Amino acid sequence: MTTTSPQTPAQPSYWNQAGGQAWVDLQGLMDGLNQPIADAVIEAGFPGKGGCVLDIGCGAGTTTLDMARRLGPAGASVGVDVSAPLLDAARAAAQAQGVANAQFLEGDAQTFDLGTAAYDAAISRFGVMFFADFDQAFANLRRALKPGGKLAFVCWRSPADNPLAGAPADAAAPYLPPMPQPDLNAPGRWAFADPERVRGILARTGWRDIEIAPLDVDTPIALPDLMTLSLRMGPLGARLQQADEATQAKVLAAMTDRLRACEVDGKVAMTAACWLVTARA
Q: Which SUPFAM superfamilies does its entry note (predicted)?
């Protein structure tokens, strides 16, 4: 998932620099891990052959391309994201795979002119929790859909439902300066953990037929890959770089021990605990 809108002015810079490049470098790993989730959101949002679909926070374009293939050559799949490096990767993938009915736009879906009644559906895989103003964003998305058009997105449930998400940072905590506790109501990964909050945002911004269902997907991952993701895709890696070599060694050992305890048949047995949200414009 990449962000579609800044939580702070630094967010676009992050996704156009270190964050975006890290995602490009790790795209194969991320796409493999998230493919069952992408499949679920595409199935939920598919409007039928020949339809026109908007992919919010499309990142490197995997969900956009998958939807384009399902729509067929008469359809159109349009991805929007704030990250130029990720969009460059998406366009290159579309060309390499010969997917001519996919298009990619650089912009913040909260404020970007997406047109009026231009799309049959809008989808997102982990791309809607980062808007600075959720009401403004979902009102803008609703305007972009035709009457009756479907919204389908996946967002994370709570940290308690995803205990391994915090395991690397918890293992590292005794060796690093304390971090402030995150505001779970602020834009970010866990912003939509409360389904009633999501329901309220959608209802206020004109959506109907709102359904929010749990989606639990097994995402087993090799320990070295999980270590790589933990150190490159979040704040832990940046904090670790500021530590001395002895501290870094202790942190890496603690993280490895913590995650190895969760290995089953050579893979860390993770489950992505999400919400699958659908609604109609």
A: S-adenosyl-L-methionine-dependent methyltransferases
Strand 102-106 to strand 76-81: parallel, antiparallel, or no bridges (unpaired)?
Answer: parallel
The Cα–Cα gap between 85 and 254 comes to 33
Do the bridges between strand 119-125 and strand 102-106 make them parallel or antiparallel, or are there none, so unpaired?
A: unpaired
pLDDT value of position 26: 73
Separation of alpha carbons 27 and 10, rounded Å: 22
**Which residues have a Cβ under 8 Å from the Cβ of 164 and sit 6 or more positions away?**
259, 262, 268, 270
Cβ-based burial of 150 (10 A; exposed 0-12, middle 13-18, buried ≥19):
buried
**CA 105 to CA 94: how far, in whole Å?**
13
Question: Which residues have a Cβ under 8 Å from the Cβ of 216 and sit 6 or more positions away?
Answer: 271, 272, 273, 274
Rounded to an integer, the average pLDDT of 201-223 is 97
35: how many CB neighbours lie within 10 A of its CB? 16
Q: Which pTM was predicted?
A: 0.90
Longest dimension (CA), the chain: 60
Q: How high is the pLDDT of residue 172?
A: 92
Residue type (1 letter), 154: V
65 to 36, 106, 253: CA distances (angstroms):
15, 16, 39
Task: Write the pLDDT tens digit of every residue in 233-255.
Answer: 777 877 888 889 999 999 999 99
Nearest Cα neighbor of 87 from 43, 137, 131, 24 is 24
**Residue-range domains of the chain with CATH:** 10-158+182-219+272-280 (3.40.50.150)
